[in-house]
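Repro:
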Amino acid sequence: MWRMAAKKGSTPAYKCTECGWTAIKWVGRCGECQAWGTVVEAGAVKPRTAPARHVERHAQPISDVDATLAAAAPTGVGEFDRVLGGGLVPGAVVLIAGEPGIGKSTLLLDVAGRTARAGKDVLYISGEESAAQVRLRGERIEAMARTLYLAAETDLATVLAQIEQVDPGLLIVDSVQTIASADIEGAPGNVSQIREVAASIIQVAKEKNIATLLVGHVTKDGSIAGPRVLEHLVDVVVQFEGERHSRLRMVRAVKNRFGPTDEVGCFDLSDVGIVGLPDPSGLFLTRTAEPAPGTCITVTLEGRRPLVTEVQALLAPSGQGGSPRRTTSGVDSSRTAMILAVLDRHCGVKARDSDCYVSTVGGVRLAEPAADLAIALAMASSLADQPFRQGTLAIGEVGLAGDVRAVQGVPRRLAEAARIGFTRAIVPKGSLGDESTPQGMDVREVADLASAVRLLNIAAAPAIGS
């Protein structure tokens, strides 16, 4: 049904706005890119655009271009500036996406208040809340300023008029899915409306050199709602991450034309607003007097920032027939199952008949393979019911052959762990090279997972290898 392309000699009556696929009949889903609701009636073919008779701004040598016009201005929120690459560039358009209630509006209102108090005019367009509701939040997070202007608008023409009247140095639109143009058919939030709204606001931002922050909704699977072209049009795409029941919020750049995309900002969302966390490692550790079985510490790299994180594992005899239960939180379930198989095959850790539960502390999500060794050792410790010596951490990727592979940034990770107070580390063989180990830290290198298990003196426990 979806491959119903136009026949030879016939005129295609419908066209996909995303990929250009054509069809002679309307369908709800594009047969090429599989996008829903993007097939619209094709208009008449327009002639090619003729060259302009007069060019107002002539091309100039690259060495003559004034680079100071693209200098980033700090927002006053250090963690947000870290993600943006130093601050907001005049004329740049930043798209901020995240789930409802994760703190997008709170962060942007804080940025608006700080920018206004620094002497700039700021225009905050709210399409979801009234101006009174925004003011109440502004009072709660202390974002009040005389040059911060609020407007509750959902009509694109009125929004453009507000921008023309205020002529702000910073524009915030919350959100792009709630604004609609009367000249475009369809309800706010559909593909055509989002494309028109985004294109109009971006054009004004570039012409007037206005730094612009757009809030974007996300779909059920976490992707940004609307056409994919929206992410191509903007200069920066920032993603909000975090568990709804946790105060920790992480902000990372998915796309950034003015800075790196490997930086992450950490925030604490509380009743008084959202506060940056320059040193968030303590949030991911359990404060106990004595080490507990089934726990292991690792150091993960979020961008270029090392974060000390605790992994907890619980392996218990399965109380039900059939396959044992495998439950994870904060780690990849498929990778956890792989590590279990490696432990069973190469280390003699008989965990195949045990229920396995693996979780991280503080709601952090471990995505990089450097946490594999810590997950494996936490499982072995839980099954042996034997804790590690206090102050021990593990870093490394585990392969299917039972080998422990090197990961990047080991010296930086160890330096962060030593700063917090850790004294013993298990790392892959050859990770340090010519780098010196941090003072006061005992670093042991291992080539395979079995060596790491033996090194921690838990291989002789009755529960392992029995």
